[in-house]
Design goal:
By secondary structure, this protein is mainly alpha-helical. The protein is built from 13 helices and two strands. The longest helix is centred in the N-terminal third of the chain and has 24 residues.
C-alpha cells in the first residue's frame, strides 16, 4: 500500500546529490512551466541544499544564487529576503485527510510510512532542512515548532477520541520525528540499516495504541 507523501513547497527533484544534476532533472520534469516558474523552483532547491549544508545563519543569498546559477537580485525578486526564501524552502504539508481511512490500523501505517517515505526520497526535504537549521537558529526552531503543531499535532489530535488527544498526537509526532531524524540525519546504525517494513512492523502497534479508541480506553 502506497501512502501519500509528505509534500514540500512545489515538486522536488529525485536527485539527492549536490550540484547541477537537480536543476536538469527539475526542468526536464516540468517542461510546461514558464521560465520564471523554473527559475523560482531552481532557487528553492538550491536554497534547501545550501541551508542543509551550512545552516540558516551561514547560508547567504549570494551563495544560494550561485548554487542556482542566477543573480542575487533574482533571489530578492522572487522571495524578498533570505528569511522569506527560507520560510518557503522549508515549508511542508502533511496530507492528513488523504492518509486517514476508516481503518485505524491502516491510518497509523499511512502516517508512519508517509513520513519515512518523504525523508527517504530526499535527504534535503523541507522538513529535514528545517530540523537541521533548528539546531542552530532559534528562528528556525520556532518555525519548526509551528510547523509540527499545525501540520502534525492539530490534525492528528482531531482524529483521536480521548480527553488527552493533543498529548497523544504530540507524542506520535515526537516519535515520528525521532525515528526519521535518527534514520536519515544522524544515521544511527541499527535504525539506518533496518528495512522500512521491519520498522513498520514494530512501531505501528505502538502508534496505534496511542491514537485509536482502543488504545485510549485501555489507558483510561
Amino acid at each position: 500500500m502506497a501512502a501519500a507523501d509528505v509534500t514540500g513547497e512545489g515538486p522536488q527533484s529525485s536527485v539527492a546529490g549536490r550540484g547541477r544534476g537537480g536543476k536538469r532533472a527539475t526542468e526536464a520534469e516540468a517542461p510546461r512551466q514558464s521560465k520564471g516558474e523554473r527559475t523560482r523552483l531552481r532557487i528553492l532547491e538550491a536554497a534547501r541544499r545550501k541551508f542543509a549544508e551550512v545552516g540558516y545563519e551561514r547560508a547567504t543569498v549570494r551563495a544560494i544564487a550561485a548554487e542556482a546559477s542566477v543573480d542575487k537580485s533574482s533571489v530578492i525578486q522572487y522571495f524578498g529576503s533570505k528569511d522569506g526564501l527560507f520560510r518557503e524552502a522549508v515549508h511542508w504539508h502533511i496530507p492528513i485527510a488523504e492518509l486517514t481511512t476508516d481503518n485505524p490500523a491502516q491510518t497509523v501505517e499511512n502516517y508512519v510510512r508517509g513520513i519515512l517515505g518523504a525523508w527517504a526520497a530526499d535527504p534535503d526535504s523541507p522538513m529535514a532542512v528545517l530540523l537541521r537549521a533548528s539546531m542552530t537558529s532559534e528562528e528556525a526552531a520556532e518555525l519548526l515548532r509551528n510547523h509540527i503543531t499545525t501540520q502534525g499535532v492539530d490534525p492528528i489530535a482531531a482524529t483521536v477520541s480521548s480527553p488527552d488527544a493533543r498529548l497523544r498526537a504530540a507524542l506520535c509526532s515526537a516519535m515520528l520525528m525521532g525515528i526519521a531524524s535518527q534514520r536519515y540525519l544522524l544515521r544511527m546504525p541499527d535504525i539506518a540499516a533496518a528495512e522500512t517494513e521491519d520498522i513498520l512492523r514494530i512501531v505501528v502497534p505502538v502508534f496505534r495504541s496511542l491514537i485509536t479508541a482502543e488504545g485510549a480506553e485501555q489507558s483510561g
